[in-house]
Amino acid sequence: MASIEGRATAEASPNIAFIKYWGKRDEKLILPQNSSLSMTLSSTTLKTTTSVVASNKINEDTFYINGKKLEMSDPEVRERLKAIGIMRELSGTTARVLAVSSNNFPSSSGLASSASGTAALVYALNAAFGLDLKPKELSMIARQGSGSACRSMMGGIVSWRKGSRNDGSDSYAVQEFSEKYWGEVIDLIAITSHEKKKIPSRAGMKQTVETNPFFTQRKTSAEKRLREVREAYRQKDLDALASLIMADSNEMHALMLSTVPSIRYLDSSSLKIMDAIEELNASEGGNIAGYTFDAGPNAHIITLKKYERKISSMLADIKGLEALEFKSSAQGSGPKLLTGVSLINEERLAPA
Ligand code: DP6
Predict the structure, then answer these.
(1) Tens of pLDDT along 332-345?
(2) Quick count: other Cβ atoms within 10 Å of Cβ 236?
(3) 134 alpha carbon to ligand 1 midpoint, in Å?
(4) Interhelix angle 201-211/238-257, nearest 10 degrees
(5) Could you please report the per-residue DSSP string of 99-168?
(6) Average pLDDT over residues 289-311
(7) Residue 349 confidence (pLDDT)
(8) Would the CB of 17 count as within 6 Å of ligand 1?
(9) For 26-62, what is each residue's pLDDT tens digit?
């Protein structure tokens, strides 16, 4: 087998789903029960930067995240880093990988670091292994580390086509709209909690698929709503878009609630924010913002840049939201390679 000595640094951002992925049809390959759609966030606000070296001189795969070395014997870590083995095989080499990764946001804030982390790793490995794979192929590799990560492989508005084949070859991400198509759309993230998730999404969605009596209808409702979201976005119809986004978040959280045992990620602050956004929309005579929540209590408010100040000051006035902090994110353009930057100390082959 050929030996190799490749280096690269890449950055990628999380995404926020407008149509949620919650449930797998294949746990090994990470194939979803329904298609989903998201907006890639801007690296100015949220990003993971990952440097990799792929070399035959390295003895074993090693991964540092925010200064902490991951335990490669942990089966969950191995599953999340599956991309390393997949890409090594594609490269036709036996090179081992050293990866050093860092987030520009605290992972404790529950802001989808697994999506940006996996996307940055896959993007950097593509260059370090000299593979030159296209975003669609990279999305299929990222998907196998963490499902939602496949949607961070492109910028703007991205859908993850669920596919129907058993080998996953038709389950990948597609860019629906570039970040420039309707660039005024932002995600105003209202952080009210830094607590760790009570139940990881992987275990939670498995529980939902296995026990939830309402799950079968989700498969059809999500596909239909995804088509409606695409159309609302195409027409730049904020009223319709916000209404669909809120409906899909509520449907996913209702499914979680009706899972046995029940899964609840929303807390009293989340509910206060939902009330406030609905009241605001009613007073405007149409929706100017839509809330959406992933597997955690922090609200993502999808709106236009021009409404940001109005919404943040309205939320700041709500009683009982003392810990409220905001992060505002425009749409991002997807992963990119960084030249002349490395998080790795090349002489010691360890974090710089
Ligand atoms: C609620 O992609 O983290 O954020 O595939 O098991 O790694 P795994 O799950 P993950 O789940 C994300 C769930 C969600 C909804 C979404 O982003 O679509």
Answers:
(1) 999 999 999 999 98
(2) 14
(3) 23
(4) 80
(5) EEEEESS-GGG---HHHHHHHHHHHHHHHHTT----HHHHHHHHHTT-GGGGGGGSSSEEEE-----TTS
(6) 97
(7) 78
(8) yes
(9) 999 999 999 999 999 999 999 999 999 999 999 999 9
147 lines ligand 1 (CB under 6 A): yes
What residue's CA is closest to ligand 1, atom 6?
A: 202
Cis check for the bond before 261: say yes or no (omega within 30 of 0): yes
**Is pLDDT of 1 > 70?**
no
The answer to whether residues 145 and 21 touch, using CB atoms and an 8 Å cutoff, is no
Question: Does residue 119 surpass a pLDDT of 90?
Answer: yes
Determine the distance separating the centroid of ligand 1 and the alpha carbon of 153, expressed in angstroms.
15
**How far apart are the C-alpha atoms of 10 and 335, rounded to whole Å?**
7
User: In the chain, what percentage of residues exceed pLDDT 90?
Assistant: 88
Query: How much distance in Å is there from the Cα of 224 to the middle of ligand 1?
Result: 20
Q: Burial code of 57-67, b = ≥16 C-beta within 10 A, e = fewer?
A: eeeebbbbbee
The partner residues of 54 in beta bridges, in order of sequence, read 6, 97
Domains of the chain and any CATH numbers:
5-179+339-349 (3.30.230.10), 185-329 (3.30.70.890)
Using only C-alpha atoms, what is the Rg of the chain? 20
- Give the residue, by CA position, lying nearest to ligand 1 atom 12: 148
The model's pTM is: 0.96
Q: Specify the pLDDT at position 110.
A: 63
Closest protein CA for atom 4 of ligand 1: 294
Ligand 1 and 111: CB distance under 6 A: no
pLDDT tens digits for range 62-95: 999 988 999 999 999 999 999 999 999 999 999 9
**3-state secondary structure at position 97:** strand
Residue 2 pLDDT exceeds 80: no
Residue from 13, 16, 21 to probe ligand 1 pocket by mutation (most atoms less than 8 Å from CB): 21
Choice from 31, 41, 171, 201 to test ligand 1 binding pocket (greatest atom count within 8 A of CB): 201
Do 136 and 159 touch, CB atoms closer than 8 A? no
